[in-house]
Amino acid sequence: MNLGIKRRVHWAAGYGVSRALLKLLARRGDPLAQLVIDTDQPENVYQLVEEVRLRGRFSAFLGGGLATADASIVREVLRDDRFRTIKPRDRSPSRLARWILAKTDPNVLNATEPPSMLVTDSPEHARLRRLVSRAFTPRALEGLRRQIQQTADNLLDGLDGDATCDLIAGYTARIPLEVIAGMLGIPRAEIPYLHEFGEPGTRLIASAAPSWWDFQVSMEALTEFEQYLAMHVERLRQRGADDSILAAVLQDGDLSDSEVRMFAALLLGAGFITTTHVLGKAVVTLVRHPDQLDRLLANPEGWPNAVEEMLRYDTAIQWGGRVATEALDIHGQTVHAGQFILLLLGGANRDPAIFDRPDEFDSTRANAREHVSFGSGIHVCLGAALARMELQIGLQSLFARFPQLTLAGEPTLNDSMALHGLSHLPVRLRPAAVVAS
């Protein structure tokens, strides 16, 4: 079968039908459908979440599924081993459609398919997590702390001569990207090349059912990225003496080639895209709450809790999902075996039953750390400690250098509800010069 036709058929069977149904519901004003399918109104994400919350602790979802923004339920489902992660076969209830999906599988590196740790379950998940956990030991993280601080300082030095700039391109995207590149042993000269894969490579998860155009863009980017990773892995094997985390994983020899490439891809995607989004939105939040920023500048010991509140207040990954493996009861709701639950993480982080005044940013919030931005249970984000470190160092260093930083225009949200972030952040680093008349 021609590659183009094969991909078109795969998209139609896996995404096309559900996309058509969701688009129909969205046009009729259904907030849940708008939340998971529309990519042109990211500014409305929390408004839509609250409309879903008004329906009750559970809301009916497409194909007999359920959705919830209830923080207690979200955390319970994430921790319950009677739920599994979503598999490619879950994209369609039709046996014929599942057969078509298997026959037309593009066989490209995809974080939503095995061997990705995001969609593997025990005991396979435990094996993969154990083999790559060396990247996030306290000793490894302490070494990364110095690198993060040096990276931030160097980037800020480069901004010193600029009156205005796009802070995403000049700072917030570059910190996590350079850190991850170091962990992967990627030469600095190739870092800009990695940046090109980030946005197109994540379009598969920009909505619950990506458009045909987004699917094509992602397939091309992921295919090229996998070829690059295969070349880089072979280069590391030949180099031998590299001290990067990826080289150490290769030397262990316990991961297959596809698992090694998936590990590298996950590090880049999870460690770069999501941290970039949180970091950019956190800058906007602080600038719009100058009293709290002033308090942090005067009392730096408040930064760790402020970072937790930023993770809660404006979530990067807005939703996830689980499938029940058996019939069970969750807070009075019967969930059937095979039933899907959409977990609205951003909604859980603004659950008024857990957080007082949830729509307000409060850097001193006592229970800010109760957010679920890093998930929970066995799939809790392996790089959570690294992300927290990058956020604190990145923000604290930025505002220590430019305490009078202001917005130089309206920030531009990206076109994704699921991976909610900024694509452009114009800032003025210093007050405008006053010209004498």
TrEMBL record:
Belongs to the cytochrome P450 family. One of its GO terms (molecular function) is heme binding. Its cofactor is heme. Transmembrane segments: none annotated. This is Cytochrome P450. Pfam families: p450. Keywords: Heme, Iron, Metal-binding, Monooxygenase, Oxidoreductase. One of its GO terms (biological process) is cholesterol catabolic process. It comes from the Bacteria.
